[in-house]
Amino acid sequence: MLDGIVGVIHNLDNIFTLYNISILVLGVVGGIILGVSAILINVPGAPANIATLIDGYPMARSGKAEPALYTCFISSFIGGLFGMMVMVLFTLPIAEFALKFQSTEIFWVAILGLTVVAGLGTGNMIKALISGAFGVWLSTIGTNPVTGEFRFIFHDILMGGIYIIPALIGLFAIPQVFSLVESYGAQRAIFQFRREKGILGKTFIQVVKMFKVQTIGSIVGSIIGLIPGVGGQVAGIVGYDQVRKFSKYPEKFGTGIPDGIAAAESANNAMVGPSLVPLLTLSVPGSPTAAVLLGGLLIHGIFPGPDLFRLHPHIVHTFIGSLVMAQVGMFVFGIIFSRYSNWVVRVPDLYMAASIVILATFGTYCVQNSFDDVMVMFGLGTLMYVGNKFGFSALPVVMGVILGDIAENSFLKGIIIADAGKGVLSHFFTGPINIIIVLMCAASIVYGIYSGRKGEKKKIRIGKSDLVVSAVILGCTILVYTSMKARDPLTAIFPAATLIITGSLSLLLLILSLVSMMAKRQPREVSPVHFPFSRIIVTGLLIIGYLSVLNVLGFYFTAFVFYLVFASIVALDREAVFSRLHNKILTSVLFVFILYMLFKMLLKVQTPTGLAF
Amino acid sequence: MKKNSYMLIALSIVLTVCVLLGFTTVARAEYPDKPIKLTVSYSPGGATDFQARIVTMMSQNYLGQPIVIINKPGAGGMVGWNWFVTSGTKDGYDLVAYNIPHFIAQSIVYPKKVKYDIRNMEPIGNWGADPAVLVVPKDSPFNSAKDLANYAKKNPGKVTVSGAGLYVGHHIALLQFEKAADIKTRYVPHKGGVPALIAVIGGEVMAGFNNTSDAFRSKERIKILAVADLERNSFIPDVPTLKEQGYDVDDTSNNFRGVAAPEGTPPAVVQKLADAFVKMFNDKKVIGKMKDTGCGMHVIPRDDLKELWKKREAYLKGALKQFVQ
């Protein structure tokens, strides 16, 4: 969760003040916000948190928000300390080990991460794979850094490619906004719960008893953390996957069990310590966070390197000390906050939906000060909402976006090097680490197929709509494939492969749905009881309106107007528009005030001001 | 009652807007009377970002206003620079950090995608220069540029050389070295100087061109064979230049960093900035901090800088002809 510092640091305009006390405070605040938003709102704030919500959100939905958060913070703490210990005890061997990860090793790690994708969907493996392939394809948009060619730039806003954070926020937050609007008015009995007495103690004992989960999670997280460039993004999800595979009840994962949260959180915090070793000993930062930290050390005239531990032991100790302090702070404040988590849960649906829209906008914008990113975020999010309706889920898409980029770049670099040297086949399949990871990939695939067959009972459900959906996907894939042109053949390898995979999978889905139609076995469609079509349209229109005046009126003023209007009219109830108006205005003002304090005062984000502010 | 309060709200919103509008249109005093924004086309923590923060930290003393750094990374700098020339204001409050040869090379290689070139950016001042160095792994059999060149001559296309990306200084340095030594190698572009250096340290590639500052920090783990510059570098005085070793490679691949304004900024403002920035770059505190952190300083005032931009463009047009898309 400390990875959250990245997002926060991106916004500080003064790097010099960063390395005082603020890093600690921001790390703590960032960590808590990310964990909480994953579990309570189903929106991961950073790639590290995507695994947390798989079990965190269902658990919170079933009324156990508080124990879910306790589990999250306790496991973070255990994993975090484990990672620090690994870092301190094995600094030099870790540094040597990290250097062994060159392009082919990193390529195989990315592939290993992608093999996890198949199991991530909601039941239908074909759809999960299509989603994953779609994510990989998204990652190929923009300039290819190895061949220098542009790909799939349908509009200028795509020139910089699709950045991970906007994709992550859009894919999770926007469907959540629409589904809150959908469920508005329905009974929310699920969230009405009473605080149980002594729940903290009970959860604590329960979490500590999950010895196996914590151990596997922490070890996997620490190992993954060593791998430069990949570690931070996938430690959580790979740790989660491993724990599930070793569990006695893998089928329960994803339904909202504390083991899932514990696995994800212990792994993604165990990653932090080891991931900093290459920075401290070799002066090579392995992640954006580490790059900012390197800047901070240099500005104080300290050159990290093998001698750092010998020449400046006090600096290393202070540094490690502050990391441990951040873990402790996150633990303590996280636990305190969790007690009041039901306040967040009790926010009315429409207020929550409006807040998510605005926070998603700010969160996306401040990563690279880019309005284009905001548009991409909303575009992808809307597409994902439609996808959700047809049984596709966001998780495999996000994994594809994250890993596609890493896999492709390391693959192309490997190809160039292999071509000049010993040949592609021997380059990618020699070296102990390569062979081990390739074997792990194979094991992961075999396990996936095996467990898929074992779970035959919950059969791949094919509905009537799948016929149309698969036909549309197949059509789009063919269209994109034929429009593709590349000067350098290397540029085309990855996009072509993903498009061919997507095409064949959608063809398979098409055939399967045709067969099931022929068999006249009318499957039970999970049709929504009532679908508030007009409310969804109004929500969409309001968001479009919001985006189009955002730059003209200024971010904060527009946020105020949007919040007020959204909370008033989306219910489409004439009575409700003016009822409790002072209440709505007060909430909007308060919300914008907090927003302003957070982004303008604390993070010092520069937002377009326009006419107002 | 309901109606009343609604009117009240509407009125107050209108009033707020009017007041805020009034604030923004108040006549301006002498330039600059508000903070100046400096767009950096790379991520926070990178060399350009890091140095931009150091060289602008004294702006309060020289311009009377602080300089705020805005990062707009993407597509090797193209996103930030494109944004800057199309959306940056021309009143002197929007400045950009440029990198040479990056932005000039991109304007040549991608004429259709890139909206900037040396004609729609106004040079203000150059603060730094980072020459490329030729590095090999610690256990490499090569001990000089000559060893490497001889091996490459016998094994054309077999020597792999890493660098921070396509058409950046490292790439240009390799192109120059290939031409001077009459050899053919394989360039392996990485996403930034650090991964490129890791590839050398870990021995995945046989050699690399990298930043002097980064190579200097890792000198325990690599061998630095040559500097692609006109003279030796003060951080690594023992390392000879390529020229000394008999290869006709000049300082064209030097990574120059500085500040520019969009074309159309009032000449008086540009002149004021140009004067103030040169003084600011030469501030004792700035020079001291740059030296402490291992960054090469090279201050060039506006008039000389204009010439340098033109010279670089003319050279790169020839050198990159084969890559134009």
Keywords, please?
heterodimer, A: 613 residues, mainly alpha, two-stranded antiparallel ribbon, 1% strand, globular, B: 325 residues, alpha/beta, D-Maltodextrin-Binding Protein, domain 2, 12 helices, 20% strand
Can you describe this structure?
- The complex is a heterodimer of chains A (613) and B (325).
- Chain A has 613 residues and is mostly helical.
- Helices cover 72% and strands 1% of the residues of chain A.
- Chain A is built from 28 helices and two strands.
- Chain A has a two-stranded antiparallel ribbon with strand order 1-2.
- In chain A, strand 1 (142-143) and strand 2 (150-151) form a beta hairpin.
- Chain B is α/β, with parallel strands linked by helices.
- Chain B has two domains: 36-130 and 255-323, Bordetella uptake gene, domain 1 (D-Maltodextrin-Binding Protein, domain 2, 3-Layer(aba) Sandwich), CATH 3.40.190; 132-228, D-Maltodextrin-Binding Protein, domain 2, CATH 3.40.190.10.
- Chain B has helices at residues 2-25, 47-55, 59-63, 78-87, 102-109, 145-154, 169-181, 193-201, 212-217, 267-281, 284-292, 302-319; strands spanning 36-40, 67-71, 94-100, 121-130, 132-137, 160-163, 186-189, 207-211, 222-228, 255-262, 297-301.
- In chain B, the strands form two sheets. A six-stranded mixed β-sheet of chain B has the order 2-1-3-10-4-11, sandwiched between helices.
- In chain B, helix 7 (169-181) links the parallel strand 6 and strand 7 (186-189).
- Chain B is globular and about 75 Å long.
- The model of chain B is unreliable at 22-27 (pLDDT under 50).
- Classes of the chains: A mainly alpha (613), B alpha/beta (325).
